[in-house]
Amino acid sequence: MYWHINCLFEIKLKKTYCMKAKLLSLAVVALVSTSAFSQSFKIGFKGGANINKLSGQSFKENFSFGYQLGGFVEVGISKKFAIQPEVLFTQINSDTSNNFSSVYQFKKIDKVQLKYLSIPLLLNYKPIKILALQAGPQFGILLNKNNTLLQNGKEAFKSGDFSMLGGVQLTVAKFMAYARYTVGLNNINDIDSKEKWKNQSIQLGVGFIL
Hints:
It is a single chain. The protein is of the alpha+beta class. Helices cover about 20% and strands about 55% of the residues. The chain has one domain: Porin (Beta Barrel). It has helices spanning about 1-35, 100-105; strands spanning about 40-55, 65-75, 80-95, 110-130, 130-145, 150, 155, 160-170, 175-185, 200-210. The strands form two sheets. The chain has an eight-stranded antiparallel beta barrel. β4 (about 110-130) and β5 form a beta hairpin.
């Protein structure tokens, strides 16, 4: 029995890593293909704060602070438009409500911490040179989770998250600053269907163009 469960776990783990590898490969191929036909090409790094919350009765409604850190590429496709793919390591913190333990029969758990590899793919519209209005999808791959959130061998959070985001970005010389709002579209509750959990976050940060 133990051997059978262990094999199932290994198969699921291999599938998860395979999905991560495919997503990263697709992102690289898309970036190389787009850059070949670009009018301009910029690369840089960025970092900042995630002000986030998990929606659902099991979590408190207040926002908590996390972080984001990574790199980006801006590929110009016309005078006003550009595509900006990014790869970010993000941390999401959330506080559970009193309902969490009663609904899922867990011992008292106050805080949840999730770390994602986030891949936004943004379309930039530049009404003026220093300002870009941004919108696009974001794909999130869960790198780790709070290992105490387990029930009957099930993972509490799904390994993937899909969001839409919108915001603004200011660029002066080689420095940039941005503000975005991200809304999760899929349910990341992997325990049952009692309630839906979705990510929401406000992203504030700065970056530098190399």
